[in-house]
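To illustrate this point, what follows is a protein record of this kind.

___
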Amino acid sequence: MSETLERDLQEMLQRKFGEARVPPAAPPDLIRRTRRRQARTVAMAALVAVALVAGSVGTVLALTHQGGTLPAGNTTTTTINGISIEYPIGWFAADPADIGLEEGPGNATVPRIVLVLSNRDPSDSTILGCPGPAEKGAGAVLMTVQEMALDEGLPGWPARTRPFAVGATGDSACYPAWAFSQAQWTAVGRSFDGRLGIAPDATDADGAALLDAYDSMSFEPGNGKGPKVLARGTAAGHDWTLILSLNPDGADLGLEYDRGGSGTGGFTVPAVPIEATSHTFRGNGDASVETVVFGAVTAQAARAVVLPEGVEATLTANPYARFNLFWAQVEGTPTRLVLEDDNGNRIGGTSFGPGGPAPSGLPTSMPTETPPEPHTSPSALPNVALPEPANPQRGGTYWAVYVAVGQSEDDQAIVWSRNRLEIMGAIPYTVGDRACDQGSEAVLPGDARFRVAVYYEQQADAHTFEKAYQEAWSGDRVVGVAEVQTYCLD
């Protein structure tokens, strides 16, 4: 397995234990869409991708496949969510909404799982959950198809599957020695991610039939109004994707990355020349600090330049409104973005970062008071060693350090603590329902619904973190420390 794939899979698992990191300045609807997009990515992972990691030694699913093995007269064809597929009679092709994996059509957003195919009934939770030890999972084959934001950079259909070879994890009993394969493609204005899994005791005929069913798929066109990938990149070693979404009030831009997301929307351009935001990445690339800047600019702008580096941003037309969109990636942290028209005249600008001068007559995307963003200057960070948090597993026992509680995930205390943990590098951490931790009632207020928690296997490490958080990093006391058993991990 390549280092890149291994890193992607590991980081995808880490996202199971954290929610989207969306700056509080982002519109609430955009926050909800970004979180849903990331949650559905995790849901897809729970079906196959995370399960891929679960194999004690995942077997490679062959790249080469000779089609045409489906026996004539023994197949049926159905269409689900605009995907037509031919598969053996007696197999199960299901709309994920019908078996409780997705919301109904009225709430359909992407990414979402749009098709499940198996030789076992997928409405049985063991097939999509943990088929390894279950009698009903013997000999199973499984395929899921997820629809994603339109990405015109993907290959077209038909798309060749590529194999996974994955190592051991704590969930190895769920998919032991399964063979796995994946492909992504774009067809008729829609983009998809397909994942296939074959149990080690599945028959050769069933394995071949699954691949034939994959090859048989055809697709109805999209409506052209769904989310669209504008750009992809890697900043300071972190992969990011910029996605344009349509909403009743106009357009939103969402930046998704390996451990969260940020965004902006509700644009008033062209009433003002420019509205922009940014996210700074720190870490593990050739450049230790890089920033992605993005937003909306007036259609009269011929150039958008990010200072002080002087990097010229990419401008693109907005199909949903009378203004253009832009993005740029720069080293370090930008201070200002300026606009020029075709004649080189400056027609607008905005500042980045707290304390920067507000542009005259122009709004800035920075509110007057915001929780700390996870890109504090390294010189301002405390030099305090922290024990590495545990990566909690369902049903495990840990020492939980609760740093904040609230009535919703958007409560200021929860947003502050999440950003603080990002700055500290205390990852993974968990944001979600306090009822997921059995034993949390010993230290959490009875009226608290949501909690932010960091988990440790040793009590001593939990108290070391507690002390560092209170004395060196935040100045605030944690809510409490308790030994708990984790269940739903959200």
